[in-house]
Give the backbone structure.
Amino acid sequence: DIQMTQSPSSLSASVGDRVTITCRASQSISKYLNWYQQKPGKAPELLIYATSSLQSGVPSRFSGSGSGTDFTLTINSLQPEDFATYYCQQSYSTPTFGQGTRLEIE
Amino acid sequence: EVQLVESGGGFIQPGGSLRLSCAASGFTFSSYWMLWVRQAPGKGLVWVSRINGDGTSTSYADSVKGRFTISRDNAKNTLYLQMNSLGAEDTAVYYCARGLYNSSSGCIAYWGQGTLVTVSS
């Protein structure tokens, strides 16, 4: 199985900040990388698929980049509703997820 | 609107069995791969199993292989997960899910609300 490693595991930031979360795959996954946001007690929601495509309804302050093994999720101008846990997931083969990054209010 | 509604979770003793169901609506159920994903309390997301549209192709995570069986009834628009020989490590919220596109391993655009399975003596 392809292992996905996210960093950092947790992150503190303030409203208005720009934050970046990274995700590294144990082997090349081309552009088959997706990002999810999960709030406590809720199901995950798809933010970005295929590395950089924004899911319908997701604000444009979210963006993704990368290819091969290294990927990033960037959130510009953090809003109060963005404080959540973020997961990357590879869809190159049998799905696997990163361990998650918890984004907290500083 | 795509809707996925899980049921069947609950409290079960180690070694027991449980069957989860997921009622799907808002799309042509038989045309899509469907998945189960679980999340242990306070932990991350883990893919469990998937099944193709007509039920002829299935796969499982190593941790559940031989104990869990995924199936579907396209006439009832329902996905199932039969879970046998349950252990404490199976305690989790189980999500029924569907991809954005009809793919065996694509991004997951639709999730149910989840159903909690607690395995404990």
About this structure: Chain A touches chain B through 23 residues (CB under 8 Å).
